[in-house]
Structure prediction request, 279 residues.
Amino acid sequence: MIHSKHAPLAGGSKRCVVAVHGSLSSGRLWARLADELGPNTQMIAPDVSGYGGNRDSIIMPERLSGEVALLAEHIGQIEGPFHLVGHSYGGAIAFKIATGSRFASRVRSLTLIEPVLPTLLAESAADRRLHELFAQLARQLYDDLSKGLAMEAIDKFTAYWNGSGPAEKLSPEARLRMIEQAGKLAFDFRAVLAEKNVTAAAAAIRVPTLLFSGGLSPYLTQRIVSRLASLIAGVDARHLPAAGHMMALSHAKLINPEIAAHIARAELAEVPAGLLTSA
Prediction:
């Protein structure tokens, strides 16, 4: 399913934003961002395979390129350049769209909210231990899910992403939805752990890029954002000390105006769309 708000005017005069959600979420995550961007923006927020309206998808990619391929039908309908926003696993997918897909040359701006790109840390000796700990978590989840222990897998998953923040209190309905979609987590972890050459891809980005990290998030994603900020030319990096990994939801009132301003600045900038150098 694709959640689209503020349909384009005749002649396609509206700017377009594609927003990608993370694991165990859906395109509805971006409803408040769509409101912030207003009626002159067409928001396209697809459900990633295995989640939301695509919960029963028979295709579960084990590579980020596979996720991009499934979203290509929706993105391919956009005429001209578009702005790209991604959170968590969706941030990793957005990064792949922007740096390693046929759509890269059409990206006008990029916003990543704690993208899960653990292999970026594996490419640095100083950060390799963080990557190993994340891979260890993935193996634990694989083991639980292979034994049908979805509740145990969800508990490990949520405890990790709570970071140093308070434990998230989930309603019985929310918990049930997470358990029903837990099987997709194994594919998401495999996809991000299979991604290669993230350092080189990040260093090639040439469009306005906004990064967010939270002080209560797992150190893994804080460090990923820090590494990306050191690699991407002209990046705008924002750190929210009191925010956790789910800041796209919990701190929407703070970050959505920042995203809207970033997109507005990119619209005014006299630079061509496209993230990759021509070299």
In short: Residues 128-146 form the longest helix (19 residues). The two ends are 37 Å apart (CA to CA). Confidence is low (pLDDT under 50) at residues 6-11, 275-279. Strands lie at 2-5, 15-20, 41-46, 82-87, 107-113, 209-214, 236-240.
